[in-house]
Design brief:
Radius of gyration: 16 Å
Number of domains: 1
Strand order of the largest sheet: 2-1-3-4-5
Shape: globular
CATH superfamily: Glutaredoxin
Oligomer: single chain
């Protein structure tokens, strides 16, 4: 197939992830390691990916530099959510399957800007330093 033909076929926004929230999962120095016992880290990531397959982009990063909050997950709003005032939400100490399921359900409902943060997830929310936020959110 020629490049010209491939270039003429636009990728739907839903498939490209452009219109979806992004869930960033830390898997570095502390997060996703045996330093956080009693959690199947691979299952946590698998559960998020399965639950959000058609609703959000799930990406893994090496380290979010928030060691005291391991395991860290950041939910970034979709473009629509950002226009509605949504901003990235940092969630720390996500060390059980129920919290992971709550994050998936909230993200599936629209996430930041489109769905209110459930009260239970408010217990996990934290604000890292500006330097750390800018590195992830930009």
């Amino acid at each position: 197939m020629s490049r010209r033909i491939r270039a003429a076929r636009p990728v739907p926004a839903e498939r490209a992830g452009a219109a979806r929230p992004t869930v960033t999962v830390c898997r570095g120095c502390c997060c996703g390691t045996p330093k956080i016992p009693r959690l199947d880290h691979a299952a946590q990531l698998r559960d998020l990916r399965a639950a959000l397959a058609d609703r959000a982009s799930v990406r893994v990063v090496d380290c979010l530099d928030a060691y005291e909050q391991a395991n860290v997950i950041v939910v970034q709003p979709s473009p629509e959510g950002r226009r509605a005032g949504g901003r990235p939400v940092w969630l720390g100490l996500v060390n059980d399957r129920d919290a992971t399921a709550d994050i998936a359900a909230w993200t599936e409902a629209g996430g930041p800007g489109l769905a209110d943060l459930p009260d239970i997830l408010d217990l996990y929310a934290f604000l890292p330093s500006r330097r750390v936020r800018q590195a992830v959110e930009d």
